[in-house]
Design brief:
GNAT family N-acetyltransferase; globular; GNAT_dom; transferase; acyltransferase activity, transferring groups other than amino-acyl groups; Acyl_CoA_acyltransferase; Aminopeptidase
């Protein structure tokens, strides 16, 4: 018997979250990320909730003898954006990753429902947003099934060299 539990990430999760971020970037965008930069970025986010909040889905299995074994199987990061139009914060879901063996098993839905409940309980939060690659049809279907709609925006960026 297994059950998903969502927990807040800790500093000791940095390397796992960095590996998942690097893997996700390669899977979704064929993009190589610098490990040291990602590790530093995740450490900074975990240390300062004003920058980011990370959540980890734990698959808890009860084995013979009643012992519970928990394994991390997915994550997402939250950031926020002020909206003057709505006089409140949008929470952005980013850095979503689910281990291949746990995909299509409700891990993202559990993470989403967890942060949705937090958002609804937090005064001033006006909703949840995320961006998804145009070609990632499976993810788009998942998000739609959870009640998310295409907001009608394209994301544009100007990335600066550092």
């Amino acid at each position: 018997m297994t059950e998903l539990r969502i927990r807040t990430a800790h500093a000791s999760d940095r390397d796992l979250l960095a590996q998942w971020a690097i893997t996700m970037a390669m899977e979704t965008e064929q993009r190589h990320l610098d490990r040291a930069t990602v590790r530093a970025g995740i450490a900074a986010g975990i240390a300062d909730p004003a920058k980011a909040r990370y959540f980890i889905a734990m698959d808890e299995a009860v084995v013979a003898g009643g012992e519970t074994i928990a394994a991390p199987v997915g994550t997402l990061m939250l950031t926020h954006e002020w909206s003057d139009w709505r006089n409140g914060d949008w929470w952005w879901i980013q850095s979503v990753y689910v281990t291949p063996t746990h995909r299509r098993r409700g891990v993202f839905a559990a993470l989403y429902r967890h942060v949705e409940a937090l958002a609804r309980a937090t005064p001033g939060v006006v909703g949840l947003r995320l961006y998804v690659e145009h070609g990632n049809v499976d993810a788009q279907r998942t998000y739609a099934a959870l009640g998310m709609d295409d907001a009608g925006y394209a994301v544009c960026e100007a990335e600066f060299e550092r």
